[in-house]
Amino acid sequence: MKLVYIVGGIVVVLGWLAIGLLVAQGPQPEIVVPAETITTVGPLNLTNTLITAWIVMAFLVVVSLLATRSMKLIPSGLQNFIESVIAFLYGQVEDIAGAKNAPRFFMVIATFFLFIIASNWFGLFPIFNAIGKTEDVGFEVFHELSAADPEKLKLKDGVYEEDHKFAGTKMEKSGGMAIIKPGAKAIDFEVKAGMNPGQAMDSYTVFLAHAFAGLEASEEEIAQPAAELVRQAREALAAEEKAPKLLVVEGHGDGSAGEHGVASAALGDTVTGIDFSKSKRFALVIPFFRGVYSDLNNTLALGICSFLIVEFWGFQALGFGYLRKFFNFSSPIAAFVGLLELLSEFIRMISFAFRLFGNIFAGEVLVLMLTFLMPFLFVDIIYGLELFVGFIQAAVFALLTLVFATMAVEHHGDEEHHDGHDGGTADAHHIPGAAQAE
Amino acid sequence: MDKAVEALGLNLPQLIAQMANFFVLLLLLRLTLYKPILKMLAERKEKIAEGLNAAEIARAEAAAAQANIQAQLDVARKEGQEIVAGAQTIATRIQSEAREQSARDREAALERARTEIQLERDRAVAVLRGEFAAITVSAAEKVINQSLDRQAHQRIIDETLAESSFSGQ
Fold first, then answer.
1. Counted domains in chain A
2. Which residue, of A259, A286, A313, is where some domain finishes?
3. Chain A residues within 8 A of B38 when measuring between CB atoms
4. B34 vs A300: CB contact, 8 Å cut-off?
5. A138-187: per-residue pLDDT in tens?
6. ipTM of the modeled complex
């Protein structure tokens, strides 16, 4: 009887995996390290991570308002949950920082923890990294090739300085909100260093014919097409009704990019435009939402915040005596140790930023890749792992900040003979800290 | 360096925006979450401490009242015992007194009866003496046939009686 269940379970799991592999496999996602910009406001790029950060903040504030709206002495429901979280965090802070410092540190530490854990767990919503606006890569490639001063490609002496990859997904429709269609195909077009715009245009022509009109071409042929192949590609694109159409005028064949188009190096005429109106688009989905801390800007910002706050507490508690930790010239060794201390203060900021970024970004990539490689079941395991990683990273960030803060406000042993004036300022500053607790 | 910064997507406005986000969130959560919750936690702590304190006081009071009652009970029991003991003593005394009294009364009654009997006998003796004298006189008259002066007779009889030392004593 038991054997039946085991075998049945295995069959169901394998079947489910097979269905995922055969039917629900999506296009390979394009992994981009910088956060994608949705729109621009003044000097600020509204990236998807920033938008997500605002949503997370709004969520936290709304939940807080709901929990504390009508507080009762005997708690229940949401209030009970939130209270237990706060009480747990406060207990942790008190354990590490001691009862004297806990009221001063608590709010900042709790904010770090709550912001990071909420952001990390938000990033696991299925809508993340999947729903977004589409960017027409097909047109973008042509614009880049035909522009005299392209944005993404670097021109030097008429040839491209370095490789650049344009990635996209071939889609049924583009524009507006689109979930990547199962079975849609991710395709890459690559511009190699040393090409001039005309050669790149020829390569692009062959690439399009290969992708949309079924022209036989190997990767090497696409990268360096012969004149004959380019002509075949033109014909294939013209013959296939549902392929993008090249707009071509006769002209000089010097392979340069001009204002009105780009001259083909192989055929000597000028391509002035590409018409995708009758064909499938070659487009990239830019997700509206992406995990907040899969963006280095955000983790670095938190690292800087942590650094600034810790230094502030250090000065608050010890006055300018705080600097003695770093600039201590009583002996060469002490001076060297002080220098190391000073360096470590700044390195912490960087390690904060990269630890959080690395973990969260890697997690997102893992979930994304597995979703497209093994659509069902496998990714659930990773989801469980990611929940754990999200919690651990939040705890690590908050606890490390707390530990550094506790170290910063500590009086040092060699300061005992300065206690006359230092102790006074420190005590004077402890009072607002204590008042803050109320 | 520039390339690395670009590849990682670092840019200053977003960095500042995110730092601002953090401080705004800190402020908002301070207002909406930490302050009310910490206040409520402190309030509850105080209430619980108060409650425990009150319970402690009540328990102490109850214990004190119990001790008080016990002490009063002890006193009452002692008093009761004393009262009973006293009553018993009194009863014994009354009993013995009554017994003595009755003995004395009996003695007195006996004494009185004895006195009366004495008196009675004396009187009877006196009567008997008188009658005996008369009988004797009449007997002597008859014997001697001699009529004598009554008073002289009486005197002779009394003298005779006195000589015969006939007395009731």
1. 2
2. A286
3. 86, 90, 106, 437
4. no
5. 777 887 777 777 777 777 777 787 787 777 766 654 433 334 454 556 67
6. 0.73
